[in-house]
Design goal:
Blueprint (H helix, E strand, L loop, with lengths): L2 H13 L9 H4 L1 H12 L4 E5 L8 E7 L2 E7 L5 E5 L14 E3 L3 E2 L6 E2 L5 E3 L18 E5 L2 E5 L8 H6 L1 H6 L5 E11 L3 H9 L4 H4 L1 H4 L8 H14 L10 E4 L10 E7 L27 E7 L3 E5 L4 E10 L2 E11 L10 H26 L14 H14 L3
Antiparallel strand pairs: 1-10, 2-3, 2-5, 3-4, 6-7, 7-8, 9-10, 11-17, 12-13, 13-14, 14-15, 15-16, 16-17
Helix pairs in contact: 6-10, 6-11
The protein binds FE2/S2 (inorganic) cluster and fe (ii) ion.
Length: 403
């Protein structure tokens, strides 16, 4: 770390008041952003979608995170792999489409061609001694967690073993490997990435900002009332085939070298069976479920990926920086693998709740960002309903100090 960055970080940490929001520079200083890219963003796993998006050999998609771009592709051998989307000739992006099916990747600049396994297969007019084998696309860290694809832009990402093990049973209950992406949308938000994730982490704002969400989700309540509703939910779960798992959020501070992850289920209100406009089901029941227990489960996978699993669909949220003051929120709506659009679900109904909620959040986050840039901004104290956000912010500070 340069001396200037070290000094800036030291000053900010010395001035930090525990239990308070982050100081302005964490959101506005480009030097902090560079440090975050190096120590957090490129060092951690990012959810890149579901294996069902790439069923056949040659199917690919591209994932952008800050200044990096990944190609995820299913090879001729059926294996999924991820490569840096950077030509080994003079560095052009190789793949300019977001998704598709291909037999090879041809660089648009001088036409170097790469196979689905990343190998360089053609390069015109190169000197005799040129070694093609040494110029394949660079592989990225890639892994699949019960159907969910993850990419990391580092050779040494944190372990996914604990998460794979501890979330195996709750994920099997929803049949995660057998799900299918029914809809996928991106919301680009002109604000620093941390403001977006902090917003997702707390529901202190839900009662005021999200009338649609607040009608159905008990997470808008304080802890005591929510705990009472959870006890009632637990009684409904067994008859609906929903088993009880509580994977306490594992903070990486507790298990260094592993991603943070967790699972919990909370209750919906009164007439709500699922997260839909009128509370009625929007898709066939998932996995082993035999009825609607009126619950919704939260999954956390590392620093950027959060899933909400209702009885009949899953909503996966991924937040990543694109630039210092521009972030991407990507949402996947997943349904049973054999559910068919038109017959079993309607995309507008399926996506309604989290589309309105995310559009409202985008506005909130942009307003938050404007105020955070003001010379009158001063970090205020977190409420008791912002405990997760507080943990997250502390984790960021801890990672920034890691060599
Ligand atoms: S940069 Fe890709 S072929 Fe030249
Ligand atoms: Fe929100």
């Amino acid at each position: 770390m340069s001396d200037r960055r070290r000094q800036l970080l030291d000053e900010l940490l010395a001035a930090r008041r525990p239990g308070h929001a982050l100081a302005q520079a964490f959101y506005t200083d480009p030097a902090i952003y560079e440090l975050e890219l190096e120590r957090i963003v490129y060092r951690n796993w990012v959810l890149a979608g579901h294996v069902s998006e790439l069923p056949d050999s040659g199917d690919f998609k591209v994932l952008e995170v800050a200044r990096e771009s990944a190609i995820i592709v299913r090879g001729e051998d059926g294996e999924l792999r991820a490569f840096a989307n950077v030509c080994r000739h003079r560095g052009s992006l190789v793949c300019l489409e977001n998704r598709g099916t291909t037999k090879k990747f041809t660089c648009p600049y001088h036409g170097w061609m790469y196979g689905l396994d990343g190998r360089l297969t053609a390069a015109r007019d190169m000197p005799e001694e040129f070694d093609r084998d040494a110029h394949g696309l660079k592989p990225l860290s890639f892994d699949v967690v019960h159907g969910l694809m993850f990419v990391a832009f580092t050779t040494d990402p944190p372990s996914l073993d604990g998460c794979k093990r501890d979330l195996a049973e709750p994920m099997a209950m929803f049949d995660f490997p057998g799900l299918r992406v029914a809809a996928n949308r991106t919301y680009d938000i002109p604000a620093n990435w941390k403001l977006c994730i902090e917003n997702y982490q707390e529901c202190y704002h839900c009662a005021t900002a999200h009338p649609e969400y607040a009608r159905m989700h008990s997470l808008t309540l304080n802890y005591e009332r929510r705990a009472r509703m959870r006890e009632e939910l637990k009684e409904r779960m067994p008859v609906c085939g929903v088993r009880e798992y509580d994977v306490d959020y594992i903070d990486t501070a507790a298990r260094p070298g592993e991603i943070g992850y967790g699972y919990s289920r909370s209750s919906l209100f009164g007439k709500y069976f699922t997260g839909s406009r009128d509370g009625r089901p929007v898709a066939p029941l998932l996995g082993e479920f035999t009825g609607y227990d009126q619950g919704a489960s939260d999954f956390t996978f590392g620093a950027f990926s959060f899933l909400l699993a209702y009885s009949d669909h899953v909503v996966a949220y991924v937040f990543t920086p694109l630039e210092h003051q521009l972030s991407r929120c990507e949402i996947y709506w997943l349904v049973r693998g054999d559910a068919r659009e038109g017959r079993d679900y309607d995309v507008d109904e399926l996506t309604w709740l989290w589309d309105v909620t995310t559009r409202a959040d985008k506005e909130i986050i942009v307003n938050n960002s404007k105020g955070v840039h003001s010379k009158y901004y001063e970090p205020g104290p977190f409420s008791t309903m912002e405990a997760m956000e507080s943990i997250y912010v502390d984790w960021i500070l801890q990672e920034l100090q890691r060599e």
